[in-house]
Amino acid sequence: MASFGEKFEDTMMTVSEVIGDNKYLTAIKDAFTAFMPFIIIGSMGTLLKTLISSTTTGLGIWIPQLAALDPAFTAINFCTMSFMTIPIVFLIAMNLAKQKGGPEHATGVVAVAAFISMVPSSVSVEGLESAIAAMDNTIFGAQGLFIGMLTALIFGSFFIWLTSIDAIKIKMPPSVPAGIAGSFNIMIPVFITLAVSSIFGVVFHLATGDYINNWIYDVLQAPLEVIFNSPMGVLAMVFVSNLFWVLGIHGGLMITPIRNAMFAAAIAANTAAAAAGAAPDQVFTMGFWCAFATVGGAGGTLCLIFATFIFSKRDDHRAIAKLALLPGICGISEPVVFGYPLVLNPTFAIPFLFCSPIMTAIALFATNVGFMPCNTVDVPFGIPIILNAIVGHGWQGAVIQVIMLVVGTLVWIPFVMVANRQWDKEQAAAAA
Asked: Buried (b) or exposed (e) across 326-356, using 16+ Cβ within 10 A?
C-alpha cells in the first residue's frame, strides 16, 4: 500500500495538473502576467507625484513650478491602475481564445464590448434633474475587476463557440481579401454575443434594481478581498505556495490566478487612497509579497544560505550557497530549491513550509500595529533585498526585513545541523 506521503504527493501533483491544464485559469494567469508591468508603472506614477510634484512631500516644496506636472503623474496612474479592468478583460479573452483556438483579437474586443454593454452608461449629478451620459471611474478600476474577469471568461467562451458554427458564418467569395472575409465571418457571432450581454444587463437591472458590476462587487469581490487580505488569508496563501514548491512545482505560478487579481485590486485601492490624502490600508500587494512573503526567495531560502555559511559542514551545500547568494538577494530561489535540493527533501521540508509564513507574520504584525505603512508603489520582482523594502515601505520596511532575515535564519539553523549529522553518517558509511 502507498504511504501517506506518497498519496499526498500524488494528490498535490493531480491538483497541479488540473490547474496547469485549466484553460480558464491559464488565461487569467497569462493576462495578469502580461499586465503586471503596467501595474508597476502605475504605482510609480504615485511615487513620482509624491517625490517631485507634491508641494508638501516632494521637490515642489522648493520648486513650486513642479506642481504643474501633477496632472501628468496622475494620468500615469489613471491610465494603468484606475483603468486596469478594460485591458485585463481584453487580455483574458484573448488568451482564452489562444487556448481554445478561436479568433484572439476579436474575442478580446468582443469581451470588452460585452462588459461595457452591461454596466451603467449614465451618472446622476447633484443639481440636475436627469442623469447625464457618462461612466463612473470605478467601473474601470479595481472595483470592476471581478465582473470584468467573469465577462471575459463567460462571453469570451460563448463568442468562441459561436465562431465555430459554420451555419452562422457569412461566406464571402474567394476573391475577397482574407482580412475582410474574416471580419464578415464573425459578424453574426459578434451580434449574438453583444445582444445576449446587453439584454442580460438590462434584465438583471430590472430584476434587482442594481447593475451587475455593483452586485458582483458587493456580493463576491468585496468579501474575497477581505478574506485574502486578512492575516490568516495571507498566511494560507504563502503556505500553499510553498507546499507546491516542496513538490517541485512552481508555487507562485499555481496561485497566480487568485493572488494577482487580489494584488491588482489592493494596490489600486492604496494608490487611490494616497491620491485622496488618506492612509492606504490594503496590506497584501505584489510589493508586500516580494519584500516580505518571499524575501530572499520562496521559503526564505536566502536565510538557508546564511545558515549554511555559518553552520554547514557540507561541501556540496556550501558550494551551492555561494552560487545562489546573489540570486537569493534578488529573490530568486530556484538555485537553492533544485540545487540542495529542497524538493521532496524531508529534512528541509518543515522549515521550507513554515519559514515564510513566520516571516510574513512578522511583517503583518508590524503593519497592523502601525509601525510599517502599506505600500503605494509596487516594486518589481528582482529588486535586491533592503532596497525593495525601502522603496515600497520606507525605512520601516528595511528594519522589518532585517528582523525577518534574522528570525528566518534561526528557523533554518537546526535543520542545517541535522543535515550535518546526515552528512557525517553518509561519509562514515562510504568509508566503511
From this structure: ebbbbbbbebbbebbebeeeeebbebbbbbb
Query: What pLDDT tens digit does each residue of the chain (432 aa) get?
Result: 455 545 655 664 565 556 667 888 888 878 887 887 887 787 777 778 777 887 876 788 888 888 899 889 888 888 887 888 899 999 999 999 999 999 999 999 999 999 999 998 887 777 676 777 778 777 887 778 888 989 999 999 999 999 999 888 887 777 677 777 778 889 999 999 999 999 999 999 999 988 998 888 887 767 777 777 778 888 888 888 888 888 766 677 667 777 777 888 888 888 888 878 888 888 888 889 989 988 888 889 999 999 999 988 888 889 889 988 888 888 888 788 878 888 777 788 889 999 999 999 999 999 999 999 998 888 877 788 998 899 889 999 999 999 999 999 999 998 888 888 888 887 777 776
- Tell me the C-alpha distance between 404 and 398, whole Å: 10
Closest Cα to residue 379, out of 292, 281, 299, 303? 292
Cβ atoms of 366 and 402 within 8 Å: the answer is no
Residue type, 90: F
For the entire predicted model, the pTM comes to 0.71
Contact 16, 254 (CB under 8 A): yes
Cis before 37 (ω within 30) = no
Helix axes 251-275, 4-21, angle to 10 degrees: 60
The CA–CA distances, whole Å, from 179 to 175, 184, 298, 376, 403 equal: 12, 9, 47, 44, 60
Residue with cell 540570486: 327
